[in-house]
Write a structure and sequence with these properties.
Helix content: 25-40%
Strand content: 15-25%
Low-confidence stretches: none
Shape: globular
Number of helices: 7
Distance between the termini: 41 Å
Largest sheet: 7 strands, parallel
Strand order of the largest sheet: 3-2-1-4-5-6-7
Number of strands: 7
Length: 247
């Protein structure tokens, strides 16, 4: 495989399993050194990291700790990209949601994206490869889903952050884009899935199947490469056609 990301160093959050782990390994396979940040500090279950993936234990909402992590990586190696992948949800009807759950979802899914982007800003600005930020949004940023309304609002906010930062940092040699995955096997989707909901979901995906996380990794790898130097402020749906499906 051609190492299109050779010489680059970056951070992927929420990288202990699912999409985050797959993305971290794929970017490492493409030549990058990847710092995989997660609460566990390493892959879950039988999963393993590529030799160029370095596990970092940390909570993305502990901003003092994240500042220390970013400073250490940036000072030691520089930071060429940031993939804001960490995210959480809770399945519950809107009128039953607690303030604590609402706040926690937005702190992880929105505030940490903004804060980590700002912490990485000086290093991304100095990147010889043109700094990149990739924010993981969701179909829930574009469509309404019952029983996860705060998740929908948080992911819609991620799109706003993506566009705003892309415009504000356009003169600072930083490109900011987002990727909106459809339904992929993950700890997060398992938490909101039951047989009835699974059948409804598959019925709304034109390709009729759940996705392979490698499809998301391939789009992110492209957006971090030299082939994507004229792309910023955009969202890329990787969803089996779900957003295009009418009635």
């Amino acid at each position: 495989m051609v190492e299109v990301l050779a010489g680059r160093t970056g951070i992927v959050t929420g990288a202990s399993s699912g999409i985050g782990l797959t993305v971290a390994n794929m970017l490492a396979e493409a030549g990058a050194v990847v710092y995989a940040v997660s609460r566990s500090g390493g892959p879950k279950g039988a999963e393993v990291y590529h030799s160029r993936v370095i596990g970092v234990k940390g909570d993305v909402t502990d901003f003092a700790a994240m500042e220390a992590v970013v400073c250490e990586i940036g000072t030691d190696r520089g930071i060429d990209f940031l993939v804001n992948n960490a995210g959480i949800t809770v399945r519950k009807r809107a009128e039953l949601f607690s303030d604590e759950d609402f706040d926690r979802i937005h702190k992880v899914n929105v505030y940490s994206v903004f804060k980590l982007s700002c912490l990485c800003y000086p290093y991304l600005k100095a990147s010889p490869f043109v700094g990149r930020i990739i924010n993981i949004a969701s179909m829930a940023a574009h469509q309404g889903f019952s029983e996860v309304v705060p998740y929908c609002s948080s992911k819609a906010a991620v799109l706003g952050l993506t566009r705003g930062l892309a415009v504000e940092w356009r003169g600072d040699s930083i490109l900011v884009n987002s990727v909106s995955p459809g339904w992929f096997p993950s700890e997060l989707t398992k938490g909101v899935m039951d047989p009835e909901r699974k059948a409804k979901i598959l019925n709304k995906i034109p390709l009729g199947r759940f996705g392979d996380p490698k499809a998301v990794g391939a789009v992110i790898r492209f957006l971090l490469s030299d082939d994507a130097l004229y792309i910023t402020g955009q969202d890329f749906a990787v969803d089996g056609g779900a957003l295009a499906f009418g009635f």
